[in-house]
Amino acid sequence: MKQPVMKKRIMKNKAVKAPRASKDNNHGILRDFFLGFIKIHTLHHAMKEDVYGLWLIEELNEHGYDLSPGTLYPILHKLEEDGLLTSYSEVVEGKVRKYYQTTPKGAHALERLREKIIELVKEVV
To answer: What is the pTM of this model?
Structure first.
């Protein structure tokens, strides 16, 4: 039986890309973890100030996440659908920009997540 050829990943600026799901490995679960981190990070920043997609992509890139709009915007829409974020649109330099902010429900969820993160880091690290 012929072995599959593994392609070498080239990552610019040492960015972390959430791996794509595969039947032959556990990249799907790693991707789920990374997406969870991104959601928490998004709630955190949207609580501090109103944020928009491109700013979040750049912010997450500083932390090693290489996200495309096609990955981030569904996350933002799902967080909004779940009542954790709310949004409004504003015209900036002639273009409509959608801003997101954490709702009270999102703030409560973030506080609970912080408690669990602290507990987990103490145990794992």
So the answer is: 0.76
